[in-house]
Fold DUF3068 domain-containing protein.
Amino acid sequence: MTSFGGIERSPQRRWSVGRCCLQSQEDHVALRRSSLVLAVVGVLLIAAAALIRFVAVPSMTKLPTEIDSESTYTGSLQSFDPSKFALGDGVAFTVARHVDVEHVDGDVAVITTVAETQRPDGNSTSSHTYAISRVDYTQRPAPEGFEVEDQKGAMTFSLPMNPDPDGNALYYTVTREPIPLEHVGDSVLEGRDVFELRGDRTAPIVDPEVLTPAQAGIAAMAGVGDGSVLPKQILGILAGFLPPEQAQPLTAALATQPDLVPVVLTADTTIEMDVDTRFGTPLRTVQDQTTVLNMKAGDELIPLLDLSRAVVSTDNASVANAASKLSSSETMLDIVAGWLPLLLTAIGVVLIVVGIARRGRPAPTTPPAGEADGASGDVLESTGPGT
């Protein structure tokens, strides 16, 4: 035992006090380090939220490099019946439409749409290739080495996400012209909010896959030409079977026509579409197309006969399947684009605040003489004058 200034100090107690101070300093250093770790983790979480919102989400909304898009359409086809001199009874047919991504070059995709038609008189397949933006599905120049169809700036299979319901058009492959679409209303289909769009247009048929067999039928009926002309005599006979309002302009025009009169096939088409308001995907499409044989008199087309009429619409199973997929995609997108970044940001901010608060605590100081020793619990006592 030693004394100094009237205070006796035990070596053991001095060691205990020193050990207590050293331990407190080490604890404080550890606290500051853990606070720094918390702040760093918080910053990383906020950065991750930003990456998800501004990098991952835009990538999720792009057209993927592989897609599984298939729809089935059912309808009825009426063909010209010579015995009735009018369209005959309708026969059922189906169309299976697939959309495949053939090639991706950055944000440009080359896609092919394939329509497989099954009819009682035989099956057929039609395919068309386009170059579109993976971001908003609009037309883009084709990558080098690829030949695509000019879609005239119109939609081929989908509008972009969150579409504007006005000012749209559908590219129609039969005429290779766009059909302007008018926004006529809003509704709900299979639980999805949809824009109701409608359009109609009459234009010459130019798609070889449709035009060639039709012209072959005309040539077989006329016994001459390639289907782009009809004998004047046949048209004169035809005028006798037409209603007066049709026969009169035809007879007047025939007077100045050559022996082989040019004829043109047109498609009179009406389109109705229900387009998802969030994703721009058509859930249901109804198409009514009448193929008309016209006589060409200068720049004027004079309708002669309706050769066929096809009315087709997306079947209910395809509508339900597409709506279900969109609902699942919407749920996932809402989580990734909204809730997940918000949660990560909130946790990150809390960790940063906690880390700053913990790091700002004052460092421990050495207890003065006469105060409790936190390590040993002893009290340094004054014993009066020592000897």
Residues 58-335 form one domain.
